[in-house]
TrEMBL record, chains A, B:
Protein name: LacI family transcriptional regulator
UniProt cross-references to InterPro entries, sorted A to Z: HTH_LacI, LacI/GalR-like_sensor, Lambda_DNA-bd_dom_sf, Peripla_BP_I
Keywords in alphabetical order: DNA-binding, Transcription, Transcription regulation
Gene Ontology molecular-function annotations: DNA-binding transcription factor activity; transcription cis-regulatory region binding
Stretches assigned to the HTH lacI-type domain: 7-61
Transmembrane segments: none
Organism expressing this protein natively: Algoriphagus yeomjeoni
Length: 340, 340
DNA sequence: CTGTTAGCGCTTTCAA
DNA sequence: TTGAAAGCGCTAACAG
């Protein structure tokens, strides 16, 4: 299948017996042009259904008005929300967006960056893959002076702006909530230890324990690989502990959902036998039985702030110096934890 | 913030004292080139961290190797899955993807098409907005011979390929399941009547009724505007009907979830008082209490098939004649309907 | 095997 | 107020 022909300025020019530059000027509403010719041209352009070739234009002005976005996976509701916010606010300012997923691999993350850079995007918004533990590709971007920022899954050693949630604060709130509602032995089920959010949420967890004068018990921290199998293995380990926790804070909702899935048929009652809380507020967490106490992260808002800051930098409305934007989270107490 | 300089072929050429065309040839591994020069060039390109300018290349060869995708909303798990399938299989064949959302409006759908066409995408994959009831913009694409196809939310009057689910079959299966498990009065809660899927799923519903010798009762068809408020209004109407249905088939899962939400505090037991089934298999449907019987639609698979067919057409491996690809759905009986 | 040349569609000086 | 010409970075005849 071959693509049909697209009308060009040259063709309009020939039809009207004027030069291409005149067409160009008319179409961008240049003031130094006779109103009549301008009118004739604009009408003819509409009649011929002219649509500018953005490729040519971008090549000429060396700006594409396009931003690149890289997320670990698009099917996650949280990242989909971020993308939605990014797109809406990019469009509002006349920018398009190219989205790529890394599928949580470093290799694809690098490949995506290459593609987007080759496509001459004006800037990049990146959320790192779970696997990313080397940062050469980002430092390379930095050295080549390609504007970018990191959001949600960030690294603190790259000197660029980043947008994150107050993970520590959220984790502190939810742990405190568990303690306030009567839990004495609160467990933290974490993701892989080198993940930024694993660390931050653990800090919040420890902070709350400290505030309640509780000495952290290494028995009460579990590490999941974040697969369903891994989560379910941990569910069993907890169920068969000689001394079970009476409250469990999971780093992300899906862990909590998997725990519930294993515990329900075993007759473990939530929140009476164990209280349970998550983080992220997945759509499923609201409808599960009992509804899961969790921490809401406004993804759309994060996308909006991230893209707005990057565009402000690109357009000189914000300083090039890296800043850190921190969004607050909201505790959503539901029935999987006891009432105050 | 200004973007740093990108290395061009010209610069490599100057450094090596050869012509630009030689660089071009070396970098695309042309056979008619001395191995030594080729090697020198490739090495130098790597050393200088050269990355091709896709814009210039695309302008020259008048092909971008980029596809445009338009979906109603990216935060829907189903469409996110489609996008994921499209991206994976487009990338496999060396294509990039630009994604846009119409936010369910005709206006944005048109704007997205304009942008993508201006960006010179090689083809488009479109899923129509809920609002789209005029098709000039699509016919225009067709007349301008810009390759595109429709998926999931399609219209049958546009002479292009389309990829859909066997909606009728899925609806037939689920209605039959309700009837087989003992329901006598099965209701269909539809979306707006001009939606393709509203019609198709109603046909399946009616087909199953007919097979069981049941005369359709107009009382037993409700139309929702698909907002949560609309769904909840219908939930109340049903609850207060003089003669309630004993089984309800909802056009999409979210309707069923809203019905449950309203009914649960009213003490209506599912499936004993009323059996309930949906369509789409949203993630939440599996974890709600009771788990919702529904029809699974493999979105990833749909994306994969759609993009593969379009690329086959683009590259001449498939005929340009429009075809209709129909994917089968799978009934997932769960506890919201009675067991067989 | 390699260089010269033209041109993709557009914008933008510089002249007229 | 308009046109001519150069050039963005790249590819592809056509020469040599």
């Amino acid at each position: 299948m071959k693509k049909g022909h697209q009308v060009t300025m040259k063709e309009i020019a020939k039809k009207l017996g004027v030069s291409v530059s005149t067409i160009s000027r008319a179409l961008k509403d240049s003031p130094e042009l006779h109103p009549d010719t301008k009118k004739r041209i604009v009408e003819m352009a509409k009649e011929m259904n002219y649509q500018p070739n953005l490729l040519a234009q971008s090549l000429r002005i060396s700006r594409t008005n396009t931003l690149g976005v890289i997320v670990p996976e698009i099917t996650s509701h949280f990242f989909a929300s971020c993308i939605s916010g990014i797109q809406d606010y990019a469009n509002k300012r006349g920018y398009n967006v190219m989205i790529c997923q890394s599928n949580e691999t470093l290799e694809l993350e690098k490949a995506n960056i290459r593609t987007l850079v080759s496509s001459q995007v004006d800037g990049l918004l990146i959320s790192l893959s779970r696997e990313t533990n080397k940062y050469d590709h980002l430092l390379d971007l930095y050295n080549r002076e390609i504007p970018f920022l990191l959001f949600d899954r960030v690294n603190e050693d790259i000197p660029v702006s980043r947008v994150t949630f107050n993970d520590e604060g959220g984790a502190y709130q939810v742990t405190k909530h568990l303690l306030e509602t009567g839990c004495k032995r609160v467990m933290y089920v974490s993701g892989p230890e080198d993940l930024y959010i694993s660390k931050k949420r653990k800090e919040g967890y420890l902070h709350a324990l400290a505030e309640f004068g509780i000495t952290p018990d290494p028995e009460l921290v579990k590490i999941s690989d974040l697969t369903s199998e891994g989560n379910m293995k941990i569910a069993n380990e907890i169920a068969f502990m000689k001394q079970r926790p009476d409250g469990v804070f999971c780093m992300i909702d899906p862990i909590a959902l998997d725990l519930m899935f294993v515990w329900k048929p075993m007759g473990i009652k939530i929140p009476d036998d164990m209280a349970l809380a998550g983080f992220t507020n997945n759509p499923a967490s609201a409808v599960i039985e009992p509804p899961l106490t969790t921490v809401a992260q406004p993804g759309y808002e994060m996308g909006k702030l991230a893209v707005t800051h990057l565009l402000d930098q690109l357009e000189g409305q914000a300083s090039d110096d890296p800043i850190s934007i921190v969004l607050e989270t909201t505790l959503l107490p539901r029935q999987s934890t006891k009432a105050l």
